[in-house]
Sequence to fold (622 residues):
Amino acid sequence: MDIIEILNGIFRQVFDDDTLVVSRATTANDIEEWDSLTHINLAVAVEMKFKIKFALGELQTLKNVGDMVDLINNKIARQ
Amino acid sequence: MEDKVTRDNQFNIGHICTRQQCDAGLGEKVAMRWLSPTMERTDYTFGDLERGSNRFANVLTGLGFAPGEIFFTFLPKAPEQFFAFLGTLKSRVVCGTLFANFGEDALLDRLGDSGARGVITKKHFLKKIDRIRDRLPNLKYIILVDSDEHLDNGVLSYSRLMAEAADVFDVPLTGPETPSVLHYTSGSTGKPKGVLHHHRSVIAQNHTSRQVLSLKADDIFWCTADQGWVTGTSYGIIGPWSLGVTQVHYGGGYSAEEWFTLLEHEQVTVWYSAPTALRMLMRESDDLYRRFDLSRLRQISSVGEPLNPEVIHWARRVINKDIYDTWFQTETGAIMICNRPGIEIRPGSMGKPIAGIEPAILADDGTRVSDTNQGNLCLKAGWPSMFATYLNNDSAYNSKFRNGFYYTGDTAFRDSDGFYWFMGRSDDVINTAGHLLSPFEVESALLEIPEISESGVIGAPDDLLFEKVIAFISLHEGQTWSMELELKIRLYISNKVSSIATPQEIRVLERIPKNKSGKIMRRVLKATYLGTDVGDISTLEED
Fold:
């Protein structure tokens, strides 16, 4: 399963929506409940699933899900 | 406070914001510049607002809504929000507004208590309502802004209803004491309370839009508040449109780059935002702001929680502007105490009361406290936008008034020059990012999680949010703390209550401190968290 598929499951869990489908182009503006506070929930869920840690402020620079995928890939590669 | 807005005893807010502006010759003037999340622009004139809100008033009338019944909007930022809000008021139905990130528990509390008969929302949010609909016997109609067809069970298409409705509506003469807007607000005990306003509030909202926000006919105004909260209705709808002022509304979320692009491109002249957003802007590089020409921006005001002096100093240094902090509450309906042009800004101060408002700093026994000493911030009752009641809760309403003064729940002091300074809350209500949150609401939701046996929730100081939500929990025997449980708790609160209620920290205790009557001793939790003296614990329940 590639990262975007795993992320899709995480997004569904975090935003309590079984119909949600994310792509690399998905941004916070595409998901009604995605605000700065649910963003933290997302970070916790992603950290737990991929066993990685985000640095303070690292997630604020992400523009879309694609950026998140790349960041996760980089972190996994560095492990 | 002088009434400069109503004509011929017509106090109807919907009428004043639309028909009255058209009658004044502003029918072709842009009332709302709508910017989608991708910055696509759509302009709506006051004539468009008039016709659209008339259609919505006809929709509700056609569905059998009677004056005084309650209808809610449950939408993210969207143009339909404004047509629905104004149309509902035109039909003299009470319009409540709900924050789009509310979860089903929060919705149930509000829709259930109010006995709401209808709600306008999006398909995406329908699942939240569906989960609780069997407990909402009065909820007859759900109008969907993004469905082309009527569905079953009273779920109707906004576009179809609006297409079939006439665009003229005779707004009945509406007296000042007619119920208008309903916002739910949190207390430290019990469920959220429905703060009901009357149409007379428009006098104060109009007055303060002129006198505090300094709005003039040719201004372009942007209020970043969500319509789910009082600022979003009092100043994101009523005040500016009662003056015929053009407003920008943006459907996207926070982004420093996009916000400043909007300020520059739309030539915003007056901007009303919140300290949390301003503090987020402060975290960006100063270089970002040098790229923008904000020469048209004449005034920035702020509301929600106290504006710390650092933000004022930042704005002066980086964007060469002052920021005027303002203070009001859901219950006050309009700005009461504020900084504004013409009065010296004392960074960190609430400023001075507006004309016609008489604050007092009172001790618990009702006696006046001398200048520079802290006490209860109170307002002499009777201002035009004073709330009319807490819906279905007269005793809570009456408890807020003593000897002709409204007790705000805030503590403050007045200095010798007449400036007011916010000190804190006299109860346990948490102010996080400008939203008041009941610890009881979060504690109750935490107890719904099977692993948790006890819970206690407090607010703790936070550099960004003003206060953050801290949850203390005890686990049932046999349960153990884990990251999985932490995530489960965070998601449960976020999705059932609201994202703003999500605990920023969760601490596990053997037992939650309670007094001998079983009341959670949040004061002890707070002192424990902050590492300060816990004070008198003689009433603490013993093992």
The two ends of chain B are 57 Å apart (CA to CA).
